[in-house]
């Protein structure tokens, strides 16, 4: 996702670099990374916008254990796959 045009409409960049405008949320599928300790962003729920790392996947339950933050008391939460997506942005974890 490159930009949000409205709360449910966005502009996306395809793997080959094309921009596609006016996509609705219902047309999108979240991507949960497969690598260990991959970074994800929470996209639904009370922790929306926070970045963390996948500690464990639970595919049979459709969720992952995600560690949010790296401070003294990081939160570890079970989050549904639909609530997280692969995060490729820069900067430190929130």
UniProtKB/TrEMBL annotation:
A Pfam family (short name) is GPKOW_C
A cellular component annotation (GO) from this entry:
spliceosomal complex
Signal sequence: where? none
Instruction: Please classify the protein's predominant subcellular localization into one broad category.
Output: nucleus
Which locations, inside or outside the cell, does it occupy?
Nucleus
Q: Which InterPro entries match?
A: Rib_uL2_dom2, Spp2-like
Question: Biological process (GO) annotations?
Answer: mRNA splicing, via spliceosome
Query: Which keywords does the record carry?
Result: mRNA processing, mRNA splicing, Nucleus
Q: What does this protein do?
A: RNA-binding protein involved in pre-mRNA splicing.
Q: Which family does it belong to?
A: Belongs to the MOS2 family.
From the Swiss-Prot or TrEMBL record, give the protein name.
G-patch domain and KOW motifs-containing protein
The gene designation is Gpkow
């Amino acid at each position: 996702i490159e930009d949000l045009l409205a709360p449910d409409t966005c502009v996306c960049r395809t793997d080959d670099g094309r921009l596609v405008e006016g996509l609705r949320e219902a047309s999108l599928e979240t991507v949960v990374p497969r690598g260990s300790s991959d970074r994800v962003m929470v996209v639904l729920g009370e922790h929306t916008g926070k970045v963390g790392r996948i500690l464990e996947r639970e595919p049979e339950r459709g969720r992952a254990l995600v560690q949010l933050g790296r401070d003294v008391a990081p939160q570890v939460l079970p989050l549904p796959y639909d609530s997280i997506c692969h995060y490729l942005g820069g900067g430190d974890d929130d």
